[in-house]
C-alpha cells in the first residue's frame, strides 16, 4: 500500500479507509471466523474492526507496517465478541471460555490469507481447489477446463510465491 | 531447497528442514476460514457508518449540533411513550441525528439514530445502549413511520454479537416518515410490525 494512501488513511479519508478495507477484509474475516466459528459474528467483528481502525487512525504511524496494526485491532475485536457471545450462550464454566481456542495460530492465518490475496487469481484458484477442495491436478484441470500441465505450472508458481511472501510465518 | 519446500507445501512429500512450519501453512490452507469472504454488505455498512459517524475525528470535525429543542409525550396503542426530543442536525443538511428512547418494554434502553442521505436512499445507523440481545427465535426490526400511521421496514438486527452499531437502510425519505421505531419480532414469517415497540424517537417538529 503506497505512502499517500496510508497518510490519507491516518487523516480519516473515506476512500483510503475503503482501500484499506479492500486490502485487509479477507485476512480480518479469516481470523474473525477462526476465533468465532460463526459467519454472522465474524462479519460483525470485521465491520467493527474497520470502524475501530478508522476511529483510531490518527494514532497510526504511516512509517510502520499497517498489517500488524490492523491485525491487533481485529484480534482484540474478535476476542471481545467471543467473550460476549460465550457469556450470552452459557454461564457455565465461563473461565474456560474466556479465551478462544484458535488464538495460537491466528497471526499465521492472517498472514497466509493476506499472501493468498496477493496471488494472481488463476494461481489462487488452483491453490484453493488443491488445498481446500482437495482436488488432484487432473481434477483441477477438468474443473477449470485447462491442460494439466498448466495446472502444474500454476501450482508450482503459486507455492513458490506463497513461500516467498511467508518467509517469516511460523518462525519463533 | 526452495524447490523442495514448494514441493512439500504442494504435496507433503519430501523432508525439508522446516517441515513443521510448512505443515502449519498447509494446515491453514485447508481451513474454511482461510478462504471465506465477508458478506458484501460489510463494506457498504462500514462506509455508511463512517459517513454518518457522530464521533468525527478531531482533524476532520466540521459538525455542529443544534440545541436541545423539546420533549414530547405521546400515547400510542395504550402505550405511553416518553420521548426525549433531542434533535441534533449536523451543519451538513444530509446528516441528521434523532434520539431514540426505550419504551415501557425496555425502559433502560437509549440511543441515537444517525441518518444520512445516499444516492438511492438513506443510511440509518442506530447506536443503542442497554437494549438486550434478542433471544433466539426473535429479532429486532427498525421502521420509519409517517403521520398517517404507515410504516416501512428499514432492516433487522439481533445484537447477539454484542452492542455494536446497527446499520439499516431506508428507501423512503425520513422527512416523510419522521418517526423511528424498533419492534421486537418473532421469527414466524409475519412481515407486519408487531405491537412490541421497544424503542421510539422522532425529530422535533418545532
Characterization of the model:
The complex is a heterodimer of chains A (172) and B (206). The two termini of chain A are 27 Å apart. In chain A, α2 runs antiparallel to α3 (39-55) and α6 (121-132) packs across α8 (148-165). Chain A contains 8 helices and no strands. Chain A has 172 residues and is mainly alpha-helical. Chain A has 2 domains: 3-102, RNA polymerase sigma factor, region 2, helix turn helix motif (Rna Polymerase Sigma Factor, Chain: A, Orthogonal Bundle), CATH 1.10.1740; 119-172, Arc Repressor Mutant, subunit A (Orthogonal Bundle), CATH 1.10.10. In chain A, 71% of the residues lie in helices and 0% in strands. Chain A has helices at 3-10, 14-36, 39-55, 66-89, 106-117, 121-132, 137-144, 148-165. Chain B has 206 residues and is of the alpha+beta class. Chain B has 2 domains: 2-35, no CATH class; 61-201, Immunoglobulin-like (Sandwich). Helices cover 18% and strands 35% of the residues of chain B. Chain B has 4 helices and 11 strands. In chain B, strands 3, 4, 5, 6, 7, 8, 9, 10 and 11 form a 9-stranded antiparallel beta sheet that branches. A two-stranded antiparallel sheet of chain B has the order 1-2. In chain B, β5 (110-118) and β6 form a beta hairpin. In chain B, α1 crosses α2 (19-29). The radius of gyration of chain B is 24 Å and the shape is elongated. At the A-B interface, α2, α3, α4, α5 and α6 of A face α1, α2, α3 and α4 of B.
Would you give the CATH topology of the largest domain in chain A? Rna Polymerase Sigma Factor, Chain: A
The overall strand count of chain A is 0
Question: CATH top level of the largest domain in chain B?
Answer: Mainly Beta
The SS-based structural class of chain A is mainly alpha
What structural class should be given to the helix and strand makeup of chain B? alpha+beta
N to C succession of SSEs of chain A: HHHHHHHH
* Shape, principal axes of CA atoms of chain A: globular
Radius of gyration of chain B from CA coordinates? 24 Å
Amino acid at each position: 500500500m503506497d505512502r499517500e494512501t496510508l497518510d490519507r488513511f491516518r487523516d480519516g479519508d473515506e476512500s483510503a479507509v475503503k482501500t484499506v478495507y479492500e486490502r485487509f477484509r479477507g485476512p480480518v474475516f479469516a481470523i474473525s471466523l477462526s476465533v468465532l466459528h460463526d459467519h454472522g459474528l465474524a462479519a460483525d467483528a470485521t465491520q467493527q474492526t474497520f470502524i475501530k481502525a478508522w476511529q483510531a487512525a490518527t494514532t497510526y504511524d504511516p512509517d510502520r507496517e499497517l498489517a500488524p496494526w490492523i491485525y491487533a485491532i481485529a484480534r482484540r475485536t474478535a476476542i471481545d465478541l467471543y467473550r460476549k457471545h460465550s457469556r450470552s450462550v452459557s454461564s457455565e464454566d465461563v473461565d474456560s471460555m474466556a479465551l478462544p481456542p484458535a488464538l495460537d495460530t491466528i497471526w499465521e492465518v492472517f498472514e497466509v490469507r493476506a499472501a493468498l490475496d496477493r496471488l494472481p487469481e488463476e494461481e489462487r484458484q488452483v491453490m484453493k481447489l488443491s488445498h481446500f477442495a482437495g482436488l488432484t491436478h487432473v481434477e483441477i484441470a477438468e474443473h477449470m477446463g485447462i491442460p494439466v500441465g498448466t495446472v502444474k505450472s500454476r501450482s508450482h508458481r503459486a507455492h513458490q510465491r506463497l513461500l516467498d511472501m511467508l518467509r517469516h510465518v511460523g518462525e519463533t | 531447497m526452495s524447490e523442495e519446500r514448494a514441493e512439500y507445501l504442494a504435496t507433503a512429500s519430501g523432508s525439508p528442514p522446516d517441515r513443521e512450519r510448512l505443515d502449519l501453512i498447509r494446515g491453514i490452507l485447508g481451513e474454511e476460514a482461510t478462504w471465506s469472504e465477508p458478506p458484501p454488505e460489510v463494506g457498504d455498512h462500514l462506509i455508511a457508518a463512517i459517513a454518518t459517524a457522530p464521533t468525527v475525528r478531531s482533524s476532520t470535525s466540521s459538525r455542529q449540533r443544534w440545541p436541545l429543542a423539546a420533549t414530547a409525550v405521546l400515547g400510542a396503542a395504550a402505550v405511553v411513550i416518553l420521548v426525549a426530543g433531542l434533535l441534533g442536525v449536523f451543519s451538513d443538511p444530509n446528516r441528521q441525528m434523532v434520539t431514540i428512547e426505550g419504551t415501557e418494554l425496555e425502559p433502560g434502553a437509549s440511543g441515537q439514530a444517525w441518518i444520512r442521505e445516499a444516492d438511492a436512499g438513506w443510511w440509518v445507523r442506530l447506536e443503542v445502549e442497554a437494549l438486550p440481545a434478542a433471544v433466539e427465535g426473535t429479532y429486532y426490526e427498525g421502521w420509519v413511520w409517517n403521520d398517517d400511521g404507515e410504516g416501512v421496514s428499514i432492516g433487522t438486527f439481533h445484537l447477539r454479537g454484542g452492542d455494536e452499531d446497527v446499520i439499516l437502510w431506508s428507501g423512503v425519505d425520513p422527512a416523510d416518515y419522521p418517526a423511528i421505531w424498533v419492534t421486537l419480532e418473532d421469527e414466524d414469517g409475519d412481515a407486519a410490525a408487531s405491537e412490541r415497540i421497544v424503542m421510539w424517537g422522532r425529530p422535533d417538529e418545532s
